[in-house]
Structures are given as structure tokens and as C-alpha cells.
Amino acid sequence: MTTEVLLPKIGFSMNDAVLSQWLIDDGAPVVAGQPLYSIESDKSVQEIESPASGTLRILAAVGETYTVGTVLAEIV
Amino acid sequence: MSEVALPSREVLVDIYRRMTLIKQNDERFIAVIKSGQIVAPYYSPRGQEAIPSALSVSLTDQDYICTIYRGFHDMLAKGVPVRMLWAEVAGRTTGTCKGKGGPMHITHPQSGVMVTTGIVGSSMPIANGLALAAQIRGEKRVAVAYFGDGASNIGAFHESLNMAAVWKLPVVFVCQNNGYGEHTRYEVATSAARISDRAAGYQIPGVTVDGNDPLAMYHVARQAIDRARSGEGPTLIEAKTFRFQGHVFGDADSYMLKGEKEAAMARDPVPAYRKWLIKQGHATEASLARLEEAISVEISAAVEFALSSPVPDISELRRDVFAQEMLS
Amino acid sequence: MNATQTPASKPLNTIQAVNLALDEAMRTDPNVILLGEDIADEQAGGIVGVTKGLSQKYGKSRVRSTPISEQAIIGAAIGAAIVGMRPVAEIMLMNFTTVAMDMIVNHAAKLRFMSGGQTHVPITIRTMTGAGFGTGGQHADYLEAWFAHTPGIKVVAPSSPADAYGLMLACIFDDDPCLFIENMPTYWNPGPPPQPGVRIPLGRANILRAGTDVTVISYSRTVADCVAVAEKLSKEGVSVEVVDLRTVAPLDFDTVLRSVARTRRAVIVHEAVKAFGVGAEIAANINEHLFGQLKAPVGRVGAYFSPVPFAKALETEFVPTPARIEAALRATLT
Questions:
Q1: C299-303 and C266-273 as β-strands: parallel, antiparallel, unpaired?
Q2: pLDDT digits (tens, 9 = 90+) for B59-118
Q3: Fewer Cβ atoms within 10 A, N terminus or C terminus of chain C?
Q4: Rounded Cα distance, C188 and C193, in Å
């Protein structure tokens, strides 16, 4: 079952964020709860954990800005 | 403070149950918010668990609380069902408020959570009103108003303490002083050395307590509740604590003093109390692990329940504005 | 006349009428309590005597003189209402509602909705206002538009003592927050007595005077002027229909629109400042429903766009005068 990795809303006024780093390689296995990626908004840098276990399929690019709710990757 | 009798083992463990429920709930909220499955501003109470836990064991469902947007700990300690809390934060019809109030307005009269407000200071005037009704009716109920250190500077604080004092209302004012009003440090905003000093201005008892010490908090709260219940009037409790996740979740903590947050987190009241319970022989590792596991299961079920519940229909905009449904 | 007498069959003024209504409500329902500054008999039963005799009759627990603390007064009323009481809180002057806006707008009006219907706030907020006594810019404002604009609170503005009695009873026993506006300069004007114990339904306008040529819509103090102007114009063969809203919010658009559909001309009159007032909402509504059928644009008469002035000559001209009302009606007939 595929789980979507959605860009979360963190903090009061955040509407979009820069994807600053993937902490797991594309195609690599990942465990739920493991740090998966980090985002930067104008307020802070946050590390986000994986919502599920499986294989990571990256969809979003480092350095790009995405709005809340964007599907950044899939865990298959 | 003089030596007072320890509460029973049941009460001691009950305090821990509430504290760990709040802590686990907070950790799960953060995880779910980070997964993007729930979008809501989150005012984390992490670090402040002991205050309402140690106080609520001396209240019943018939007693009232009014709390504020950083109030999930107050609500859970008082007995709001976990699944209804989650469903409300997820904006579902199965939430406490049919999804129409959200996290800042959780209401659950059955457990005495009468008002949650998003306005700093507004818990106090309304708590006075709940206490007033109890007084006029000759009931033995107590109303608790929770608020933060920032709120002790707003007009409603002063009006409420004054009125509660002149009318000897059965209310307990609980200021959770975590050192910050939004992003402003206590010392920059507040003229009193201690918030409890202000009680003298209203001729009511004021006490400062380590809010992260469950036993101390229990005793101070118990005294204030007993005072109120016996018709002796209000008390101002200043419970000192610290918040681990900033003002709203996602906050950078650049406005804090360097190392301040780390030091507070190293003194995390929840594992500290857990350790103490086992060391003093009030509980075992096994019994607490079982309790924590049961809570974890309950929270998982609550998340599942919330995320699979329906969202409200647009027709809900016409309901609950007035008693009668609006026509358009 | 004091609170212990039964309702008389002779004329009474608004002070007496409201006093009677409060007495009736407190007598029949122990959950009715009164809060406000100076309202108990020890403080002379209210600044103009509206609550006279009530603390003596019902005790000082149910009739409480409060500190000067508008946020605390309304907050206490809200808290008590949430658990089943029916508090009547007085905010002495309508301008002082501004001190309690958070409690009124953020809490009283919204708790039913935000709680998903689990709690509600059956409070009545009594307040007085009105220009004419030289009280100046902070003691005479009509602010009903602010509250009519807030979903969840009802706004009631009686134009006579009998209406004040019946509408007050309706407000107290309504399950939602009601703001009840009493006009100060006309407090002592006598009028026909009410029907004892009878509530006048909220949200229903009253056609005070039937007419066919033009509809004038008003509430509170200006209703009497509208009736006088209607009388004057009738001598010229102009038939004016006077609609007294009684309740500003929820507004009885049904009655208003049916009247204007017949007369095809409308003027709204209120003492509140004309700009952005209740008249604008009514005019817009008439426009939406009756656009092609009107014989003239909808007229509005209200106070000048300034704070209430002190100097007598200014104050008198500041509010809608019979002359300005008449001019507005005539303008629709040309």
C-alpha cells in the first residue's frame, strides 16, 4: 500500500517551505519514524520523520519551494 | 511548606496516568501534524503536564474548568475523551464540537470542560460566572480558570480577581507561568516579581509553586480547591513550569535564552515522576509499562477514529448560530 | 410606582415597563439574576431606577451591584448562563460595551457555534444610550450595527414602554444572547401599558401605521418622529406606512419587503450614524429583491458622520430631525 508523504503545515503562518534535504536515498528502504527529510520555512528548520515503512520514491527536488499539502514522495 | 500526608497510591499513580497521557498525546499530535494528515495550529503543552494532572485528581466531573488554546493538558487531565479531542482537531463531525470549534474551543460539559478560549485572559471572567452560578444555587462545585503568565497582565485578570474576591466566589485561578508570553520573556512584560504577589492586591491568598513537582502541585491545588468548596473564596496559584515546543508548534526558539530550553528538557517532569514512583515503591516498572501501553493503544485508536470520521456538511454553517437553524 | 405593584392599566414609562418585566421574569424563574453597576437598592436601584425594588424583593444574591468591570460583568453573566441561569447584565451606557467587546463578540455570540451546540448563552445585556442630554461623544452612541453584524447575538430596540416590557420578557427567555437597547432621553415618556406576562416575539416587525404611498422603516427613538411625520403628510393625502422593526437582528425582512413591494418607496430612519448603519443593510436587501419595482431609490436618514457633539444646537441637529425625515419621504414622491 502506497503512503503519500505530504508537506505539513508547521507553525501559524507557514504556507510553503523549501525542501532543504533528503535524509534517505531515492529507492532506499525506510522505517516509520526514521528522519526522512528536512524543510526550511522563514521561521525554522524542521526534520520530518517517515510516516510509514517501505521503499522511498522521491518526487520533490531539493532547493525547491512547495506549498502545504504537496506530495513530496511516496513510500511503497 | 510543612510536611503533609502523601495522597494514596491510587492517586499518585492516577496523577502519573494523566501526565503520561498528555505526553504521549503530544508526541502523537506532533507526528501526525508532521505527516501532513492534520493541518492545525498546535500550542503544545509539553513540559507542563504535572500542573493539571496533580490538580484534576482533586476535582470531579461536576467541577468546572475554563482553559485556553494551550490547554490540551488541562482538558485531557480533566477527562475529555481522547478520540473526541482528536476528531475535533481533525475537523470532523465526531469531534467534541462537530468540527466547528477546533482545537482552541474544545468543549465537553460532561467532564466539566465548559469553555476553551483562544483569547488570552478570557478564561477567568467566565470561570467566575460558573462559580457564581454554583454559589447562588448553593452547590459545592468549584470552577478552575487556567491561564498563562502573559494573561496576568491583561485587564480581565484584574477585573476577575477583584470580582471573585469581593463576592468570595468558589474559583481557583491557576496561572501556568512558563516564563514566556508568546515570544516575550516574563521579566520584559511583567512588573511583579512573582505573579502570586498580585494576590495581595486583591486580598486573596496567592502561592507560587513548582508546577513540575506533582506532589507540591497536588497539595497547593488541594488546599485551594478545599477553600473554594467550603465557601472561603478564591485563590491565585502561580505554577512555575516550562514549555518544550515554543509558543506554537513550528516556532523557532531564537527568542529564548541560550541553553534554557535544553536545561528544562533535561528536568522533564514526566520521566522524573515515573522514576520517583518506582523508587518509592508506589508502582513497578511493569505496572507503569502496562499503563503506558494501554494509553498508546487508546491514542492509536483515537487517531484512526478521527481520520476516518466524516467532515461536516456545509449545512452546518446554518446550525448553532442561534437555537433555531438559519434559513440561509 | 414600585416593583411590588401588579401591572397597572394606566400609562407607564419605559423605566417602569422594564422594571415590571424584570420583576415578572424573576418572579416566575429563579434562574433569572441581575448584574450591573449600581443596580441594587442600596445604590438606589439603578442610575435611573430601572431595577428599583428588585434587590429588596429577590435578595442581594440574585440582584448584584458589581464593581466597575464590564469584562467581568459580562463574563460572569456568560459563565452563569452556560450552566442554565438567565442573567440580565446591565452595561450602563452603550459606549461601555466597547470595554466588554471581547466577552460579547468573541464569547457570548460564538460559544454556541464553537461548542457545536453543546453550550449556549441565554444572557440579556441591557444598555441605554441616545443623544439629547448633552452627554457628548462617549455616552450617546447607537452601536447596534456592530452587533447586528456579529452572527450569534440578537439586537432588540423597543420604541415604546409597552414594547419594552414585552420584548424584555422575550429576550430574557430567549436561549441566545440578546442586546436590549433603551433610549435615555425618552425613558420618562408615558405610553399605553403592556399585556401582563405577554412576550412580544423577537425577529418580528410591527406595522404601526398602515399606508400605501411610501414605507418608512425605523426602530427605537426615531419611530415616534416617523409616526408624527406620517400624520403630517396624511393631511396632504400622502399615505405613509410606518414599520417599527422592534428587533434589529434578526431583522424581519419579510415584513419590510412585503410592505415595500406594495408601496414601491422606502426610507429607513435610525438615530445611529447613517454611514455603514443598519439602514444600509436594509437598503441593499430591498435592492436585491425589488430592484425593478421601486419608484424611487431607497432613502436613509441617520445621524451625521461625527461623534455626538456637546453644544445643544449641534446635538439637536446631529440626530435625524422630523424635518429631515419629512424631506427624505418627500424626495421619494417627486
A1: parallel
A2: 999 999 999 999 999 999 999 999 999 999 999 999 999 999 999 999 999 999 999 999
A3: C
A4: 14
Question: Which backbone phi and psi does B261 adopt, to 5 degrees?
Answer: -65, -45
C-alpha cell of residue B86: 482528536
Give the DSSP H or E segment for B147: strand B143-148
Model ipTM value: 0.95
The partner residue sitting opposite B319, judged by closest CB among C64, C117, C250, is C117
Q: Are strands A35-40 and A45-49 parallel, antiparallel or unpaired?
A: antiparallel
Pairwise CB contact (< 8 Å): B126 & C82: yes
Phi and psi angles of residue B307, each rounded to the nearest 5 degrees, phi first: -70, -15
Integer CA distances (angstroms), C196 to B123, C6, C16, C206, C310, in order: 39, 9, 13, 19, 39
Residue C55 phi/psi, 5-degree rounding, is: -70, -30
B3 in any annotated domain:
no
What CATH number has the domain bearing residue B86? Answer: 3.40.50.970
Strand partners for B146: B174
Cα angle value B251/B157/B193 (rounded, 5°): 75
Pick the closest to residue C70 from B125, B72, B251 (CA basis).
B125
Work out the minimum CA distance from A32 to partner chain B, whole angstroms.
Answer: 11
Number of domains, chain B:
1
Q: How far is A52 from chain B (nearest CA, A)?
A: 10
B328 found inside a domain:
no
Is residue B325 in some structural domain?
A: no
* Contacts of residue C213, Cβ cutoff 8 Å, sequence gap at least 6: C238, C239, C240, C263, C265, C333
The pTM of the whole model exceeds 0.80: yes
Residues of B in contact with C202 (CB under 8 A): none
C-alpha cell at B139: 452547590
Domain boundaries, chain A: 3-75
Residue B208 lies in a domain: yes
- Residue B147's domain comprises 9-318
Local mean pLDDT, 10-residue blocks, chain C (334 residues)? 55 98 98 97 95 98 97 98 98 98 98 98 98 95 98 98 98 98 97 97 98 98 98 98 98 98 98 98 98 98 97 96 98 95
Longest dimension (CA), chain A: 34
Q: For B38, name the nearest residue in chain A, comparing CA atoms only.
A: A8
Q: What is the pLDDT of residues B21-40, one digit of tens each?
A: 999 999 999 999 999 999 88
Q: For residue B145, how far is the Cα from the chain centroid? A: 9
CB atoms near residue B215 (< 10 Å): 18
What DSSP character marks residue C150? Answer: S
Strands in C266-273's sheet, in edge-to-edge order, are C206-209, C240-244, C214-218, C266-273, C299-303
Structural domains for chain C: 14-183 (3.40.50.970), 206-333 (3.40.50.920)
Residue A48's SS3 state is strand
Q: CA–CA separation, C67 vs B158, rounded Å?
A: 11
CB-CB under 8 Å, A41 with B36 = no
- Yes or no: say if C270 and C219 are a contact pair by the CB < 8 Å rule: yes
User: Which of the residues B34, B39, B249 would you substitute to probe the A interface, choosing the one with the greatest number of A C-beta atoms within 10 Å?
Assistant: B34
Integer Cα distance of B131 and B128 in angstroms: 5
Which stretches of chain C are assigned E, i.e. beta strand?
A: 32-36, 63-65, 86-93, 124-129, 154-156, 178-183, 206-209, 214-218, 240-244, 247-249, 266-273, 299-303
Q: What is the CATH T-level fold of the domain A3-75, as seen in this structure?
A: OB fold (Dihydrolipoamide Acetyltransferase, E2P) (2.40.50)
**Contact B151/B176 with Cβ under 8 angstroms?**
no
Contacts of B109 in chain C (CB under 8 A): 118-119
Nearest CA in chain B to C86: B133
Distance from CA of B123 to the nearest CA of C (A): 9
Peptide bond into C250 cis (omega under 30): yes
